[in-house]
Amino acid sequence: MNLQSASREQLQAFEAELSQQYDTYQAAGLNLDLTRGKPSTEQVALSNNLDGILSGNYFAADGTDLRNYGGLDGLPEMKQLFADTFGLDASSIAIAGNSSLTLMYQSVMFAQHFGLGAEAWNKEEGEVKFLCPVPGYDRHFSICEELGIAMIPVAMNENGPLMDEVEALIKADPMIKGIWCVPRFSNPTGCVYSAEVVGRIAALGKIAGKGFKVFWDNAYAVHVLNDNAEELTSITDCAKDAGTEDNILLFGSTSKVTFAGAGVAFLAAASPALSAFKKHLAISSIGPDKVNQQRHIDLLKDAEGFKRHMAKHAVILKPRFDIVEKHLSEGLAAAGIATWLKPEGGYFVSFDSMPGLAKEVVAMAAKAGVKLTPAGATYPYGDDPLDTNIRIAPTYPAIEDIDQAMGIFVTCVKLASVRKLLSA
């Protein structure tokens, strides 16, 4: 039934039915968690062979002693593995630690205070600003808040950020120094940036103020649910065509590929920015964990091995996303009160309620034993102006728990929506 066209009597009857269902859920004392996009226990177990894989051989192919200092920017074989998997030039890659989020934080901080191939942002007159496509990744926004960078939300659709808006803002304000992008299976919408959008983002350096950087967080590039999932146009190729290679910083990691807390992360950039990054990094580091890099080289071996490993992840993940889609489609598709995207990869489902209801739905779900990411988290400063977006993260819980949690979620959405319609 389309609730938007239902009579008041129908809505009242539906409200009574849904209230009874909701009371039953509350009384059950459940504790289900769909808050963060963590890999499941089954997924991390796919990489258990990392333990002991070196068999006591702590020397790299070139004879480097993996146990000792040095190798600030990583092993050549690890660079090549990332280069072949992500379509990059190995000479543009630096490897440091296990977290691409750390590399992003460092890159923003270095650019802010020291410069990355250009003058430091804080030496210019005015407030440094970033463009933030929304809904987006809350940890990107936290970096900006931590470092005192103002955030400007820009809308997205199924093709990525609305580029007319992005270009107009950048042309009008040279103190916009960056834009956050999660280009393939975006967090949380799951969209893949179109070829046109990638090309226009690559060209932003031609119209932006000095020192502008695209922060290309390709976190989910290899996290495919379907073999025929849409590919992503290479921003490095587009940047070469536009002559803007210096404006692009690319990030990725194995955090959701192998062990989430013991992976390998990389930054890829053109020479001026990469050289500056390594110079600043050398002040705080005497080298990354080369033992762990070699473990990953031996486990994944090459780009084809990487792909085969991710196919095993898809077998585990796809049923979880299918359950989410089943509940949303069967429970809400005909109701006319919500929209969502069906992703072909990544870790999230982005859900939009009727305006003004996201916080209420999240609160209702919590009272019924289902924890969700706080409403507003996908917007800068936690402020979703329409209070509509909810990020669903179905990767970590057991399938049975996801099934139960989504049944409760759909009930909460319906009940909140019916009450809103009755109050109008």
TrEMBL record:
Q: Which domain of life is it from?
A: Bacteria
Does the record bear Signal in its keywords?
no
Read off the InterPro entries from this record. Answer: AspAT_Ic (IPR024551), PyrdxlP-dep_Trfase (IPR015424), PyrdxlP-dep_Trfase_major (IPR015421), PyrdxlP-dep_Trfase_small (IPR015422)
Sorted alphabetically, the keyword list is: Aminotransferase, Transferase
Mention one GO molecular function. transaminase activity
In terms of PANTHER family, this protein maps to: AMINOTRANSFERASE, PUTATIVE-RELATED, ASPARTATE AMINOTRANSFERASE
Protein name, per record? Aminotransferase/MSMEI_6121
What is the native source organism of this protein?
Answer: Sinobacterium norvegicum
